[in-house]
Specification:
The complex is a heterodimer of chains A (289) and B (398). By secondary structure, chain A is an all-alpha fold. Chain A has 11 helices and 2 strands. The radius of gyration of chain A is 19 Å and the shape is globular. Chain B has 398 residues and is of the alpha/beta class. In chain B, helix 10 links the parallel strand 10 and strand 11. The chains are: A mainly alpha (289), B alpha/beta (398).
């Protein structure tokens, strides 16, 4: 029994990490159709900020989270204003936004990644924080992983609640469904767009900050996370906060059980099999409406 | 207006320099510089290894040689000029860059790229163009099996390293071992070596599993292995996973008598990240500053130049490769055929001891095992190279 509990819990924790990584991109791509392929790079920036804060200024990484979130939010508003504002305004259709923002995203990816190489070099960096293990129901888990898990679940549920039950959440969803219609009923998309984009980057930064407690960081760390985020979002359904969370869990569980019963080397095969299976059964994702 | 005045000053400076140049030049009269080309990862996933182990050594060596007045080429001093390219951790860029360096740029010599895979890709080109290559980060029988006369591997081959580990285990009376290995040429080669060595020493392999590089969680696998309670746990791992395996083993309280992780364990960042937790962890290593006066001098120079420490395995091999190149060029010049023959048939003095090659393999440097002890990666096996006694069994995780 304890064995099963541990296996399931490990899978859920890994799944929580995947869901966390996907949160920010889900705001940008899921709700605004901005295909920000440089998502992982901003996650990397968040991780480096936290690492700097912890090693240079000796700040507790958890207390540093709001700083990272604010910094990345501000950066997001600036990036939106410089790069994406024109695309959104001039694009005749949502599909065009996707295609054009993808190109801009690639540019940002190279820019941010290489800036990080210039600033910090290619070396792996890391620090130890909350690496002690705790006993939960007879199984042992590292505290930092539990923190990441708790944050992923909390933030996903919060996002879900905001989108579903608040006026601002409704406005954001309206903006996606019909940009012109949203303007007609008095939704200020000029204000809402940069804010949502900035929130997406803030979430990416926070995810990076949390991950830097668990994994080593390097300027090239972002790309695999972008891929993970895309899989999770597509799996869960574009723009669905609950879908991202459950999609992440599903991936984590499949990987963990697969690792136990087959070989860790089959991990990628299993993840993609799940993705393809879901897409065949529900082409719009598990929780798309 | 400060901008025009600045540029005016710059122009004046340039004119002044041009005017003085002829006067200075005769004092340093010498031949054209020796151009040495290479491509290496400054960005992308390989760069973490390449920028710790390899390129800092290239640059520091060129600076030191030039500060000594240049490279001695059959008695004549010539400056060294490095022609370096960022290969972006991309195999195609590696191949294209070396094709260009040797084919159209016609550099005098080349230095190898980082990693077993990239070296494997460049080897045939080096042979085609006739450039000897002394590789500090390529290991595997498969590479030597190509019988490429221009390829020289500086690291100990997998079977040597794994033989040393198995000998250590046998000497301490270990009976069982569990292994996980990364799904890359490196992991497969090391594992093949280890499996044979353990068998020879009658150590039973109770579990063997492969895993993909960059995996985010190995706790289920480590739990399975913990339940089998082996004397030794050996992870033939790559850098990010080396950290993951250490952290998660500690978390689940898996503390076998021998805990071994492969690439990355010898990196200073491993100690810096884990602090006292690293105590007693073993890994691939050849040397440390205590090994000899020469390694101490190298270590100090590296720290002074780069403000960071070299790794305790391949960094010194990279430096040894440059020393060999320097000694061979002094004898044979930059006639690359003669240079190859000199490298193949002579013995060289390096910071990791005398090195001689046979069929491209460094047959002088013995396999070794190292262990973190109070902040230093002590060489604990073989006894003649050891800088300290081993902790066995490994102390409990801190």
């Amino acid at each position: 029994m304890a064995f099963w509990f541990e296996l399931v819990a490990t899978g859920l924790i890994t799944g929580g990490i995947y869901a966390l990584v996907a949160l920010g991109l889900n705001l940008q791509y899921g709700l605004m159709r901005i295909m920000n392929i440089s998502h992982g790079e901003f996650l990397m920036l968040g991780a480096y900020l936290t690492w700097l804060g912890h090693t240079v200024l000796q700040v507790n990484p958890i207390l540093f989270l709001p700083v990272v979130a604010l910094a990345l939010f501000a950066l997001g508003v600036v990036v939106y204003w410089l790069c994406f504002r024109r695309i959104i305004r001039t694009a005749p259709a949502v599909e065009v936004i996707e295609a054009r923002s993808l190109l801009v995203g690639f540019g940002l990816l190279f820019l941010v990644q290489n800036a990080a190489y210039l600033a910090w070099g290619a070396d792996l960096r890391g620090y130890s924080f909350l690496t002690e293990a705790v006993d939960v129901g007879g199984a042992r888990f590292q505290v930092n992983r539990l923190v990441v898990f708790a944050f992923a679940v909390g933030a996903s549920l919060l996002l879900l609640a905001v989108l579903r039950w608040t006026l601002i959440g409704k406005a954001v969803r309206a903006m996606m469904q019909s940009p012109t219609g949203a303007q007609l009923v008095g939704i200020d998309t000029r204000f809402l767009h940069p804010v949502v984009f900035g929130l997406g980057l803030a979430m990416a930064g926070v995810a990076g900050a949390l991950l830097s407690m668990v994994y080593e960081i390097s300027p090239g760390m972002g790309e695999p996370y972008t891929v993970t985020a895309l899989i999770v979002i597509v799996l869960g359904g574009l723009g669905s906060a609950l879908g991202s969370l459950l999609g992440g869990f599903l991936l984590g569980l499949v990987e963990t059980f697969g690792m136990h019963y087959t070989s860790p080397s089959l991990k990628m095969l299993l993840s993609y099999a799940v993705l393809i299976g879901v897409l065949l059964a529900r082409p719009k994702g598990l929780f798309a409406r | 207006m400060s901008v025009p005045s600045l540029s005016r000053r710059a122009i004046l400076g340039a004119i002044a320099a041009a005017a003085f140049a002829p006067a200075i030049a005769p004092a340093f009269a010498q031949d054209a510089p020796v151009r040495i080309g290479y491509a290496i990862a400054r960005t992308g996933p390989w760069s973490a290894g390449a920028q710790v182990t390899q390129e800092p050594n290239y640059i520091m060596w060129a600076e030191q040689v030039n500060a000594r007045g240049g490279l001695s080429v059959k008695g004549k001093k010539r400056m060294v000029e490095l022609v370096a390219v960022d290969d972006r951790s991309d195999m195609e860029t590696v191949v294209r860059s070396y094709e260009r360096l040797m084919g159209s740029d016609k550099v005098d010599l080349i230095l190898p790229p980082w990693g077993t895979g990239a070296n494997f890709a460049v080897m045939p080109l080096a042979q085609k163009h006739g450039y000897p290559m002394l590789s500090p980060t390529a290991t595997g029988r498969k590479l030597l099996g190509m019988k490429n006369p221009y390829f020289f591997a500086l690291l100990q081959q997998p079977d040597r390293m794994m033989d040393a580990l198995a000998e250590f285990l046998a000497a301490r009376g270990a009976k069982t071992a569990a292994v996980i290995y990364v799904d890359e040429l490196f992991g497969l080669e090391q594992f093949a070596g280890l499996e044979a060595s353990l068998k020879q020493k009658n150590i039973q392999l109770v579990e063997k599993k492969s895993y993909p590089i960059g995996v985010k969680d190995l706790q289920p696998v480590l739990n399975d292995i913990k339940s089998k309670n082996p004397d030794a746990f050996i992870a033939l791992s790559y850098p990010p996973d080396t950290f993951l395996i250490t952290g998660q083993s500690r978390a689940i309280g898996f503390n076998p008598k021998l805990f071994y992780t492969a690439v990355g364990t010898a990196f200073p960042v491993y100690r810096d990240k884990f602090g006292p937790v690293a105590e007693g962890v073993m890994g691939l290593g050849t040397w440390n500053p205590k090994s000899s006066a020469a390694t101490k001098a190298y270590f100090d120079a590296h720290v002074a130049r780069w403000k960071k420490e070299p790794d305790r395995w391949a960094s010194a091999h990279a430096w040894a490769g440059l020393q060999i190149l320097e000694q061979a060029v002094a004898k044979a010049g930059v006639d690359r055929k003669a240079l190859r023959d000199t490298i193949a048939n002579s013995e060289f003095d390096t910071i990791i001891g005398k090195i001689r090659f046979r069929n491209g393999e460094n047959i002088s440097t013995p396999g070794a095992v190292s262990q973190w002890q109070s902040g230093e990666f002590e060489v604990v096996w073989p006894p003649q190279n050891a800088t300290g006694p081993a902790y066995y069994p490994k102390p409990a995780w801190k």
